[in-house]
Amino acid sequence: RFPTGVKELKIGVSYSLHGKKLPPSCMPAGLEDLGAVNVEYITLPGWNEDISKCTSFSQLPTAARAYLKTVQDLCGIPISWVGLGPDREDMIAVSI
After folding, report:
1. pTM score > 0.85 for this model?
2. Using CA of residue 28, residue 31, residue 36, residue 40, what is the dihedral sign?
3. CA-to-CA distance for 56 and 94, rounded, in angstroms?
4. pLDDT digits (tens, 9 = 90+) for 32-42
5. Which residues have CB under 8 Å from 75's CB, separation 6+?
């Protein structure tokens, strides 16, 4: 059985350095500054259901669908496919 249960998921949504928010897609080039970067997270509920046998988006737990929707919204591009296991057959089409 493919393990899938997670209590919560954190997504990094912004970064700050020395109290100043960094512009999107920008990270410091130096290791010292990079080590001082703070991450702002949002936390989403996880799920305990085994999703490895899901064959469609609608079969995913509500929390898993909400997670994918949040990632899609944050990235600003549609998610078309999600892998639920190691094999090619484990891919499902996403319709959000």
Report:
1. no
2. positive
3. 8
4. 999 999 999 99
5. none
